[in-house]
Amino acid sequence: MDNNANKKPTKTNIPKFNLNWLYMIIAMMLLGLYLTNESGTTTKNIPYDEFQEYVRNGYMSKVVGYDDNSVEAYVKPQYVPDVFKADSSRVGKSPLITTEAPSRESLGNFLQKEKDEARFDGSISYEKKWNYFGAILWQILPFAFLIGFWIFISRKWSGGNGGGGGGIFSVGKSKAQLFEKNSPVKITFKDVAGLAEAKQEVEEIVEFLREPQKYTDLGGKIPKGALLVGPPGTGKTLLAKAVAGEANVPFFSLAGSDFVEMFVGVGASRVRDLFRQAKEKAPCIVFIDEIDAVGRARAKAAAMGGNDERENTLNQLLTEMDGFGSNSGVIILAATNRVDVLDKALLRAGRFDRQIHVDLPDLNERKEVFGVHLRPIKIDNSVDVELLARQTPGFSGADIANVCNEAVLIAARHGKKLVGKQDFLDAVDRIVGGLEKKTKITTEAERRSIAIHEAGHASISWLLEYANPLIKVTIVPRGRALGAAWYLPEERQITTKEQILDEMCATLGGRAAEDLFLGRISTGAMNDLERVTKQAYGMIAYLGMSDKLPNLCYYNNDEYSFNRPYSEKTAELIDEEVKHMVNEQYDRAKKILSEYKEGHNQLAQLLIDKEVIFAEDVEHIFGKRPWASRSEEIISASKISEELKKAEEEVAVKAKEAEKEVKEEEDKNTSEDSSDESKSKN
């Protein structure tokens, strides 16, 4: 046990300024105003005969008689100095005198007599005397109302009954959302499809919290933290939600940006408050989503004459995670897709003991993800999960969820009761290529240019060994593209130089076909050129795949360094190598297209006639692909292409049948109308 954990922190001598102090100060200010009474009423008690003398002299503006024979009389402003022997500004706005009359009748007779003799021109009234408690209540009620209103507004600002919301009086409080033990969190590990290795490591942390003795008996220690790393949409936050649902311990959840505020020192204060709450609830889990918002690497040079709030927050986080204080029983889970920008001190063992990589799902994992997202959807028997998984390479879990939702929207748009296979295929096309724009106007020359361009891609991808197998090609505009081609990329862990060069050659096939068969080039290849240029620079500067610069990597992961790690001469050499590599593959593409000129022209004409062609059409023109070692990928691509072609043919048949039914219905209605007209004439 760490003795420091049980010691209370040393208190400073600075008094804590809380709401109670504020209320006391306001009450004292109001009491002072009431006692000084600079704008209130000054009262003077005099004998009855002196009161009569003031009335005869015409000093009184108003006289009030009460049922207990007491009298209050208000003095005219011009006679205040004579009555009170003081300046008018010092006695208030409505000074009055009080006296005791012998009786109510004698007071009335006296005032009426003076009024008749024109010595008293004020008003006379008779009222019931208030009791002492009522008078006091009337005096303090306005102040009580103001104080109560201030307390109400203060509680609203501070986020309720002392809570640490977003109020100005609790900006230093942690914004973490707390899930207590046995809280009804709906997400569990069953809802997380795929991610087998990541789930195994996270489940081990949950198991440690449930049965710590199983590990401590062997001398093990509980991990202090685990960092979930991976591309966006792969399920890092979902995995953390599953931990909250499975772990029978308190779970704090917040985002990295919750520490950031406009006030200086608030971020560090929130970190302290978060870990204070976590220690009180230990054993527990703290989850910080998008930790790169607060954990970005610190600058080498301090801010010029300023105080870097984000660095102070990070320093406090580092201290709380592994400093002199003990955080026994508090496990930190964090998620980010920018692990390269995090501070090295944050990533060391003892703070984040594990980095759990959450990668894009492979084929089998995509099947599982589709299975999870298809549970609430009403699908028909035509939906093939394996086909959908094969047609979505590189899709994250969020992308697959988007595909399923888009398919439901497409089916609902067409008034269907069940979601079919074609709806899912259309959803994939919609997400990959964009919305189909059949109404976009293109001239015949443009359609021919687009067809030759897309046929160039399709031809070379079919003829090269390592190019991705083709599925479908269309010249119908989608999104910002005038044409599109769908391929089935091979899912591999490493990529050879020959494979990248074949992909570059296939990408340049569109521009090469325009140059070769039209004698001119167009703007349609902009995206192709961008991809090829990035690939070439990556191969030469990062992967060391250059003949003149072999085995050299100039990749620099230091975000705050703007100096290139090579000389100007090397930069020129890199540029020359990129130009040579791209031009070499461009010439190679033109050579292949020249050799298979007839097949390309047939494919382009087929595209102009049908607008959409499939792998079977390309196979009919060029024959089967000769690489038996990649037959599995080719078969998969052919299978998907066949499914797509059948689905589109079914849709076309149904559309013709619907059109025929509508026409028959119109003819029937027309014949009925004509018979009705003939009857009316007869």
Overview of the molecule:
- The protein is α/β, with parallel strands linked by helices and 682 residues long.
- It contains 25 helices and 14 strands.
- The radius of gyration is 43 Å and the shape is elongated.
- Mean pLDDT is 78; it is low at 1-18, 159-169 and 628-635.
- β8, α10 and β9 (284-289) form a beta-alpha-beta unit.
- A six-stranded mixed beta sheet has the order 6-8-9-10-7-11. A five-stranded mixed beta sheet has the order 1-4-3-2-5.
- α20 crosses α22.
Query: What average pLDDT do the residues reach?
Result: 78
Strand percent estimate: 5-15%
What percent of the residues sit in helical stretches (DSSP H or I)? 40-55%
Distance from first to last alpha carbon: 110 Å
Q: What is the total tally of β strands? A: 14
The description of the largest β-sheet is: 6 strands, mixed
List the uncertain runs. Answer: 1-18, 159-169, 628-635
Number of helices: 25
Looking across the biggest beta sheet, what order are the strands in?
6-8-9-10-7-11
Shape summary:
elongated
Supply Rg: 43 Å
Classification by helices and strands: alpha/beta
